[in-house]
Amino acid sequence: KNEVEQSPQNLTAQEGEFITINCSYSVGISALHWLQQHPGGGIVSLFMLSSGKKKHGRLIATINIQEKHSSLHITASHPRDSAVYICAVRSKGGADGLTFGKGTHLIIQP
Amino acid sequence: GAGVSQSPSNKVTEKGKDVELRCDPISGHTALYWYRQSLGQGLEFLIYFQGNSAPDKSGLPSDRFSAERTGGSVSTLTIQRTQQEDSAVYLCASSSRQGGGSPLHFGNGTRLTVT
Fold first, then answer.
1. pLDDT in tens, B34-85
2. Quick check: B40 contacting A, CB < 8 Å?
3. What does the pLDDT look like over A19-39, one tens digit per residue?
């Protein structure tokens, strides 16, 4: 069973700061997802990646397969980025469901 | 519709009653997932459907839980003899192929409260 750890659990930062959220996992994966959950519960898929780096607007996701680690970066953070960010992985050769991290609760203060 | 639709959005039921939760995935999406999120907890995988293959039921917490997907589209998650610990938000997601290969699209969830 893949163990997914996220850090930090909670993060409060000022508007404009560069944000990094980390995710590590224990077993080889076929894909990793970064999800965003806003207050009220709606979940949005931000990235799905299996290697390298992806960028969308102010969001950047990277993954290092050898180190079993991924990071989500937010540049020029804004209060509307306040949400829970969740890392989820699909293990290689395992059951088809995703294994989720517990999430990082991010608050960006104006 | 443009997104994954779940109904009802809220359900309050008495302990011991059966409930059915419905998910309408995005048209054409072959992969459908059910998850749940208990208060203050992370997301928990329940069951996965992919096309006409046998579903992966490895996440179902007990035999009171079952799910069907009719015609490769709409799915129903049934919880029999509900217990208070079943209270959670039940989320459905779909993707155009196996989730490892394409983004997931989530519904807004059904908030289930068992009294």
1. 999 888 777 888 998 988 888 888 889 999 999 999 887 999 999 999 999 9
2. no
3. 999 999 998 888 899 999 887
Q: How far is B46 from chain A (nearest CA, A)?
A: 8
Q: Which residues pair with residue A49 across a beta bridge?
A: A32
Contacts of A101 in chain B (CB under 8 A): 42
Q: How far is CA B114 from the centre of its chain?
A: 17
Chain B contact for A35 (CB, 8 A cutoff): yes
The whole-angstrom distance between residue B56's C-alpha and the CA centroid of its chain comes to 13
A68 has a chain B CB within 8 A of its CB: no
Q: Tell which phi-psi region holds residue B47, choosing left (phi > 0), alpha (psi between -120 and 50) or beta.
A: beta
Convert chain A into a string of H (helix), E (strand) and C (coil).
CCCEEEECCEEEEECCCCEEEEEEECCCEEEEEEEEECCCCCEEEEEEECCEEEEECCEEEEEECCCCEEEEEECCCCHHHCEEEEEEEEECCCCCCCEECCCEEEEEEC
